[in-house]
Specification:
heterodimer; A: Butyryl-Coa Dehydrogenase, subunit A, domain 1; Butyryl-CoA Dehydrogenase, subunit A, domain 3; 2 domains; 3-stranded antiparallel beta sheet; 7 strands; 55% helix; globular; B: Butyryl-Coa Dehydrogenase, subunit A, domain 1; 4-stranded mixed beta sheet; 4-stranded antiparallel beta sheet
Chain lengths: 337, 380
C-alpha cells in the first residue's frame, strides 16, 4: 500500500536542498558573486576601450571580452555531485530524479551561479567529463549560445556565432546568425543514453524545466531581499515595510514565487512536457517581475550597480530567452486546449 | 514529492465515477435562479442522494485526497454544487464538529448530512466587512436566552435557511476588552420572532444575498458553540476551512471553461489571433498551477495535522484574479455575444466580479500574506 498523495518535499529532499545551498553559498557566496562581477566588468570596460571602431567578429576580441568561468568552482560542484545528480548510480552518479534536480537548480538560481550549468548537467553521463565538472558543456538555444568561448563542448550548430555584449555581466552570449534554432541539444539525444535515464522526456523539456527552477530560486531570493529591505529601511520614522503599498508589492512577489514553485515541482514529478512549458512560463514571469518589484522596493538603491537586484533581473531576462520562451510556451499550451 | 494516488484512492475515484454516471441522468431539471424554495429542494435532495450512497460526509472526510477527488470528479461530471448546503457542510458544520458539545454535534450535524436542514451565515454587517471583528450586533443574557438585536448582510439562502451561524457581540469594546474578545458564536433558528429578511439584488441582477435584520430575537443559551466571548477563535476555525479547499471544484471548472472557450474561438475564427491564443495559453498554465497549489496546500495541511493555513491566501489572491481574466478573455472570444445576458458566460462574468471581494478582499489577503507569512510590520 503506497502513501496518500503527498505533494511536499520529503525529509531527504529537504536535506538535499539544504546541503546544496550550503555548498553553493560556501563556494559562491555574495563576495564571490561581486568579485566575479567586478572581473567581468573590468574586462568589458577594457575591451570596450580597445575595440572602439573595430568589428565584433574578431575572435581575439571575443575571447578577451568574455568573463572567465571559474573552473575550480565548476569542479567543486562536480565533486559535490551537482552535475551527476540524475546519472544512475551504476554509472557513477547520484541516481536521483528530476524532482531533486529542480531543487538543486533552484538553489543555483538563488545564488546566481554563473556558467552553462543546465547544458552541462544534461550532458552528464553522455559527454565524458561533464559529470565531474572537468568538461564544460554549452548548447545552442533559440539562437543564443551562453558561454561559447569558455565551453569545451558545444551541442548544436554554433557555426558563425557572433559575440554580443551581454546585458548580464555574468553570462557571455553569442548569437547564431540564422536566428532561432532547435532548442538545447534536442538533436543530440541518443536513444541508448536516453533510455538509461529515468525519464523519457526530451532534453528540451528538461532544459526548460531546469531553467525554470533557476528562475524560481531567483524569484524567491528577490522576494526575500525586498522584504528584508522593507524591514531595514526607515523613512517617515519607521520601516517602509509598514506601508501597505510596500507590503502589497511584497505579497504579490510571494504569490508569483509560490505559484511558480508548485508548477516547477509538479512538472518535475509528472515529467509532462506541457506542465514543464507552463512552469517555465510562470517561473520566467515570477523571476522577471519579482526582480522588477525588488528593484522598486529598494528605491534609489535598487538602481545602483552595487545592489545585487540588477544582477537578478538581467539573469532573469537571459533565462527567459533560453528554453521555452513565453511565446513558445503559450502557443504550445494553447494548442493543447 | 509525490502526485500519484493510492489504489484505494483510485478505487474511490472509479466507484464515484460509475455512481455519478448512473445517478446524474436521473436528476430533475434545475430550478430557476430566483426560485429559492425550488433551489433549496433541489440542493437538499442532491445532498440526500449523496448521503444515501455513502458520500454524505465526504466534505468532512479525514482524507483530504478523497475530498479533492470528490470535488474533481463531481465537477467534471457536471454534478450539482453544494448550493444551499454550503454553510452547513463547509462553515457551520465543521465549526460545530470541531468546537461543539457532543449534544450539539448530535443535534445539528446529522440533519446537515441528510439534507434535512439548511444553514446560512450571519457574520458580515454593514459596518463590519473586511474588519469583521468590528461587528456590533448585540446580544445580552435574559434568563436562559440571549436577546439579539442588530443587522447582518451578504447572507446567502437566508430566505430558505433553518439555522443561522451568527456572530454577536456579548461584551462591548473597551480598553479592557479588545474587539476580538467580546464576540460569541450562536446557532439562531431562522423561524424565531423578530427576524426580517430583505433580499439584496446584486449587479448581476439576481438576489443571491440578503440583509437580515434582528429585533430582540431570543436564542437559547444552549445554542452557543464555544464559550461566551470566545466566538472569534471559534470562527477562525471555520474561515481557515473555507480558504483551504472551498475552491477546488471551481479550479476544475475553470479548466473546463478554458477548453470550451478554445473550442468556441476555433469555431468563430478568433483563434487566428495570436494575442488571444497566447492569452488562453497563459491562463491554461495558471489554472494548472492553481490545481497543483491546491494539492500542495492540502498535503501541507495534512502534514501539520491542522486546517489549511496561509497558503489559502496565496491561492485565493491568484485564483480570483485568474478567474476574472478568464472571463475577460471570454468576452473577447464572444465579441458582441459578451453583451447578451442570455449567454451563460455573460452572467458568470458579472458574478466573477465578486471573487476579489468575497471571503476577504484581495487587499486584505495581501495584508495577511505580508504580515503573517512575510513578517512585515503591522500595516498602516
Amino acid at each position: 500500500m503506497s502513501a496518500p498523495v503527498d505533494f511536499q518535499l520529503t525529509d531527504d529532499q529537504t536535506v538535499l536542498k539544504r546541503g546544496i545551498r550550503d555548498v553553493l553559498e560556501g563556494r559562491f557566496g555574495r563576495d564571490a558573486l561581486r568579485a566575479a562581477v567586478d572581473a567581468a566588468d573590468a574586462a568589458d570596460a577594457a575591451d570596450a576601450a580597445d575595440a572602439a571602431g573595430s568589428v565584433d567578429n574578431d575572435a581575439a576580441v571575443d575571447a578577451r571580452r568574455a568573463p572567465r568561468l571559474d573552473r575550480e568552482l565548476w569542479r567543486a560542484l562536480g565533486d559535490a555531485g551537482f552535475f551527476s545528480l540524475c546519472v544512475p548510480e551504476g554509472a557513477g552518479g547520484v541516481g536521483l530524479g528530476l524532482p531533486e534536480a529542480v531543487l538543486a537548480f533552484e538553489e543555483a538560481g538563488r545564488v546566481l551561479l554563473p556558467g552553462p550549468a543546465v547544458a552541462t548537467f544534461l550532458a552528464a553521463g553522455e559527454v565524458a567529463g561533464a559529470a565531474s565538472g572537468e568538461v564544460v558543456v554549452t548548447a545552442v538555444d533559440g539562437g543564443l549560445v551562453p558561454w561559447l568561448a569558455e565551453a569545451d563542448v558545444v551541442r548544436g550548430d554554433a557555426a558563425g556565432a557572433v559575440a554580443v555584449r551581454s546585458v548580464d555581466p555574468l553570462t557571455p552570449l553569442h548569437r547564431v546568425p540564422d536566428g532561432p534554432q532547435a532548442p538545447t541539444g534536442a538533436a543530440h539525444v541518443s536513444r541508448a543514453t536516453h533510455a538509461s535515464r529515468a525519464s523519457h522526456v526530451s532534453h528540451a523539456s528538461h532544459a526548460s524545466l531546469l531553467v525554470a527552477a533557476e528562475q524560481l530560486g531567483s524569484a524567491t531570493r528577490t522576494c526575500e531581499a525586498a522584504v528584508q529591505y522593507a524591514q531595514d529601511r526607515e523613512q517617515f520614522g519607521g520601516p517602509v515595510g509598514r506601508f501597505q503599498a510596500v507590503q502589497h508589492l511584497c505579497a504579490d512577489m510571494l504569490v508569483r514565487a509560490e505559484l511558480a514553485r508548485v508548477a516547477v515541482y509538479a512538472a518535475a514529478v509528472t515529467q509532462d512536457p506541457l506542465e514543464a512549458a507552463g512552469a517555465k512560463l510562470l517561473a520566467d514571469d515570477a523571476a522577471v517581475r519579482n526582480a522588477r518589484d525588488c528593484l522598486q522596493a529598494h528605491g534609489g538603491m535598487g538602481f545602483t550597480w552595487e545592489s545585487d537586484v540588477h544582477l537578478h533581473l538581467k539573469r532573469a531576462w537571459v533565462r527567459a530567452g533560453l528554453g521555452h520562451t513565453a511565446a513558445r510556451a503559450e502557443e504550445e499550451l494553447a494548442a493543447a486546449l | 514529492m509525490d502526485l500519484t494516488y493510492t489504489e484505494e484512492e483510485e478505487a474511490f475515484r472509479e466507484g464515484l465515477r460509475a455512481w455519478l454516471a448512473d445517478v446524474l441522468p436521473k436528476l430533475p431539471a434545475k430550478p430557476a435562479p430566483d426560485d429559492w424554495p425550488g433551489r433549496r429542494a433541489y440542493d437538499t435532495a442532491w445532498q440526500r442522494t449523496l448521503y444515501d450512497a455513502g458520500y454524505g460526509e465526504v466534505h468532512w472526510d479525514a482524507s483530504p485526497t478523497r475530498r479533492l477527488i470528490f470535488l474533481e470528479e463531481t465537477e467534471k461530471a457536471g454534478a450539482p454544487y453544494v448550493g444551499a448546503n454550503f454553510v452547513g457542510l463547509l462553515h457551520a458544520g465543521p465549526t460545530i464538529a470541531s468546537e461543539g458539545t457532543p449534544e450539539q454535534r448530535a443535534r445539528w450535524l446529522p440533519p446537515v448530512l441528510r439534507g434535512d436542514e439548511v444553514w446560512c451565515q450571519g457574520f458580515s454587517e454593514p459596518d463590519a466587512g473586511s474588519d469583521l471583528a468590528a461587528l456590533r450586533t448585540r446580544a445580552w443574557r435574559d434568563g436562559d436566552d440571549y436577546v439579539v438585536s442588530g443587522s447582518k448582510i451578504w447572507t446567502s439562502h437566508a430566505e430558505v435557511a433553518d439555522w443561522c451561524e451568527l456572530l454577536v457581540r456579548t461584551t462591548p469594546v473597551s480598553e479592557d476588552a479588545p474587539k476580538h474578545r467580546g464576540i460569541t458564536w450562536l446557532a439562531m433558528p431562522m423561524d424565531a420572532a423578530g427576524i426580517t429578511v430583505r433580499p439584496l439584488r446584486t449587479l448581476a441582477g439576481s438576489a443571491e444575498f440578503a440583509e437580515v435584520f434582528l429585533d430582540e430575537v431570543r436564542v437559547p443559551v444552549g445554542n452557543r458553540v464555544g464559550d461566551e466571548n470566545d466566538g472569534w477563535r471559534v470562527t477562525m476555525v471555520t474561515l481557515s476551512f473555507e480558504r483551504g479547499t472551498a475552491f477546488v471544484g471551481e479550479v476544475v471548472a475553470c479548466r473546463r471553461l478554458l477548453g470550451e472557450l478554445a473550442r468556441e474561438a476555433r469555431a468563430n475564427g478568433c483563434w487566428d489571433d495570436a494575442v488571444l491564443r497566447r492569452r488562453l495559453g497563459r491562463l491554461s498554465a495558471e489554472f494548472a498551477a492553481l490545481w497543483r497549489l491546491t494539492q500542495w496546500n492540502v498535503s501541507e495541511a495534512r502534514r501539520t495535522g491542522g486546517v489549511p493555513g496561509t497558503g489559502g491566501s496565496v491561492f485565493k489572491l491568484r485564483y480570483s484574479h485568474a478567474r476574472q481574466e478568464l472571463y475577460d478573455a471570454a468576452a473577447e472570444v464572444l465579441g458582441p455575444g459578451a453583451l447578451d445576458l442570455d449567454r451563460a458566460w455573460t452572467l458568470e462574468r458579472l458574478s466573477s466580479l465578486s471573487y476579489t471581494i468575497a471571503a476577504g478582499t484581495s487587499q486584505i489577503q495581501r495584508n495577511i500574506v505580508a504580515e503573517r507569512v512575510l513578517g512585515l510590520p503591522k500595516g498602516r
